UniProtKB/TrEMBL annotation:
<dbReference type="Pfam" id="PF06831">
    <property type="entry name" value="H2TH"/>
</dbReference>
<dbReference type="GO" id="GO:0034039">
    <property type="term" value="F:8-oxo-7,8-dihydroguanine DNA N-glycosylase activity"/>
</dbReference>
<protein>
    <submittedName>
        <fullName>Formamidopyrimidine-DNA glycosylase</fullName>
    </submittedName>
</protein>
<feature type="domain" description="Formamidopyrimidine-DNA glycosylase catalytic">
    <location>
        <begin position="2"/>
        <end position="114"/>
    </location>
</feature>
<dbReference type="InterPro" id="IPR015886">
    <property type="entry name" value="H2TH_FPG"/>
</dbReference>
<dbReference type="InterPro" id="IPR000214">
    <property type="entry name" value="Znf_DNA_glyclase/AP_lyase"/>
</dbReference>
<dbReference type="InterPro" id="IPR012319">
    <property type="entry name" value="FPG_cat"/>
</dbReference>
<dbReference type="InterPro" id="IPR035937">
    <property type="entry name" value="FPG_N"/>
</dbReference>
<keyword id="KW-0378">Hydrolase</keyword>
<keyword id="KW-0238">DNA-binding</keyword>
<dbReference type="InterPro" id="IPR010979">
    <property type="entry name" value="Ribosomal_uS13-like_H2TH"/>
</dbReference>
<dbReference type="GO" id="GO:0003906">
    <property type="term" value="F:DNA-(apurinic or apyrimidinic site) endonuclease activity"/>
</dbReference>
<keyword id="KW-0511">Multifunctional enzyme</keyword>
<dbReference type="GO" id="GO:0016829">
    <property type="term" value="F:lyase activity"/>
</dbReference>
<keyword id="KW-0227">DNA damage</keyword>
<dbReference type="GO" id="GO:0008270">
    <property type="term" value="F:zinc ion binding"/>
</dbReference>
<dbReference type="InterPro" id="IPR010663">
    <property type="entry name" value="Znf_FPG/IleRS"/>
</dbReference>
Length: 309
């Protein structure tokens, strides 16, 4: 799943490659990916990408109608070229989604197919554009076309961004206190508490902080809260810096290469050499190091899948 560092890198990539380009056509292959229908997705056509931003794990492309152009009655814009003219294409890539940039997109409309991962194709002229793709059978990739990103329910409910200047140790302590006895793994991945952290980086953060994923949130001593806060900022900052400037196609491999415990079940911990263990759930798993995080004791692999919601 693309998380905060990868989405931030995509933002930087699209700012460089897409801003200033005008949408010439949009092809929707998987109608299930569209979560809004007014304004229609065709309202993108003729609009220019003016900005790219991130909200947690959501990607946000601002598109603006040219001054004086007719916007039509239902696209949510005006014809004065001001901020009221903006629409936002907000994308959540979910677990298996990705953005593929191309300088040679086919002009022919793509055909739907059972094994076709393509969900949406956006043309930006001269063969340039991007595909939103999703592998697997669980189709969770989501696209919204809205006048305001806050109109997207997932964006509206986001907690603080852990790399923002106003995310402080005191704010971290408040979040943990409010979470009560909820387990740390679940608190870190709850987007309403902290925006942008997913399964992989929560494993990495807890390993860096030397904390059990099952430790109750309100059971941390003050020094452990500080350690967790520092681990969040350091792990995400370092991952974001490594991903900065990479092409979209290289982000996945970069992420996997630098993970210490996530996805490394059975391999030695890079810190202490102990074997990385796993706890499996209905549709996901977590990885941890017993020596670094749980006092050498393996965790029982029988927790409820609701931990990762």
């Amino acid at each position: 799943m693309p998380e905060l560092p990868e989405v931030e890198a995509l933002v930087g990539f699209l700012r460089q490659e897409a801003v200033g380009r005008t949408v010439t056509r949009v092809h929707v292959v998987a109608i299930s990916a569209l979560k809004t229908f007014q304004p229609p997705i065709d309202a993108l056509v003729g609009r220019t990408v003016t900005a790219v931003d991130r909200h947690g794990k959501f990607l946000d492309l601002t598109v603006r109608q040219a001054p004086g152009a007719s916007t039509g009655p239902d696209d949510g814009g005006s014809d004065d070229g001001g901020s009221d003219d903006d629409l936002h294409l907000v994308v959540h890539l979910a677990r298996a989604g990705w953005l593929r940039w191309s300088t040679s997109l086919s002009e022919k409309p793509p055909r739907p197919g059972r094994n076709n991962p393509l969900a949406v194709r956006v043309h930006l002229g001269d063969g340039v554009g991007f595909d939103l793709t999703e592998a697997g059978t669980q189709k969770r990739l989501a696209c919204y076309l809205v006048p305001d990103p806050a109109d997207v329910p997932g964006v509206a409910r986001l907690g603080p961004d852990p790399l923002a200047d106003d995310f402080t140790p005191e704010r971290m302590a408040e979040i943990l206190t409010a979470a009560g006895r909820a387990q740390l793994k679940g608190v870190l991945t709850d987007q309403a508490r902290l925006a942008g952290i997913g399964n992989a980086y929560s494993d990495e953060i807890l390993h860096a902080a030397r904390l059990s994923p099952f430790k109750p949130a309100n059971g941390l001593a003050p020094d452990q809260i500080t350690t967790l806060y520092d681990a969040i900022r350091r792990v995400l900052s370092e991952a974001t810096e490594r991903a900065r400037g990479l092409a979209a196609k290289d982000l996945k491999s970069e992420k996997k290469t630098n993970l210490a415990v996530h996805g490394r079940t059975g391999q030695p911990c890079p810190v202490c050499g102990d074997t990385v263990r796993e706890v499996s759930f209905a549709d996901s798993s977590l990885q941890y190091c017993p020596t670094c995080q749980t006092g050498g004791k393996p965790l029982a692999d029988r927790r409820l899948s609701r931990l990762l919601k």
